[in-house]
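Weekly structure sync, notes
Attendees: PL (lead), two postdocs, one rotation student
Agenda item 3: pending single-chain targets
PL asked that the sequence for the first pending target be pasted directly into the notes so everyone works from the same version. It is reproduced below exactly as submitted, 205 residues in total.
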Amino acid sequence: MLEEFYPETPVPLDHESPFQLLIAVLMSAQTTDKKVNEVTPELFRQGPDAKAMAKLSPETIQGIIREVGLAPTKAKNISKLANILVESYDGEIPNTFEGLEGLPGVGHKTAGVVMAQAFGVPAFPIDTHIHRLAARWGLSNGKNVVQTEKDLKAIFPKDSWNKLHLQIIFFGREYCPARNHDLTKCPICSWTATKKRIREEMGSR
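Predicted structure, written out during the meeting:
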C-alpha cells in the first residue's frame, strides 16, 4: 500500500550537501519541515558549509532561525557542531553513527536520517509519526522509539528501510494524524483494524 501511495520518496528537507542535510534534520525537532525549509535558504547562504558556518556567531545563527522551535539551543548546537567539524573532520561530516551522535544536538534519529539519506546506509530512524503508526498497525507494542526501531527492523528487509522510513512519514502526515483520526477513512488503519478484528474473533472461538 505504501509503495502504491508513495512510489517516489524525495527527502522533505531542502539541502545541497550532507552538511546541510545534517543541519536541516537537527533543526526539524519539534518543528515542521516546512518551517525548516523557510529558514534554511538564508542560513545556508551565509553558512553553506561547516567552515563558513563556524564563522557565524550563535547569535547570528539564532537570528536567522528564530522562527524555529528551540532556536536558542539549536543555534548554539549548530555553532559548536560546525566548529567541531572544522577542527576534527576537516569540515566534512562523519559517515558513522558513532561520529554523528558525538556531535552537539545530534541524536540517534538525526544520525539515522543522515546515514540513510546522505550515505545510503540502511537505517530506520523513528520519529513520532512512525512510532504512532507502528503501534496502530500492530507492528510494534514498543513503549519507546528504541523498541519500535528494533521491531520494524526485524519485520522489514534491510534494503527497504530507508524508503519505508519516508513512506510511513508521508502517510502519517496525509492520512494518519495523531488527533481527530478517522480509522474508517484511513486506508491502512481500516485494513489493519479489520485484520485484527478477524484474528480476535477466530481466537475467541
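Discussion points:
- The chain has a mean pLDDT of 93.
- The CA atoms of residues 85 and 91 lie 5 Å apart.
Action: rotation student to compare against the earlier draft before next sync.
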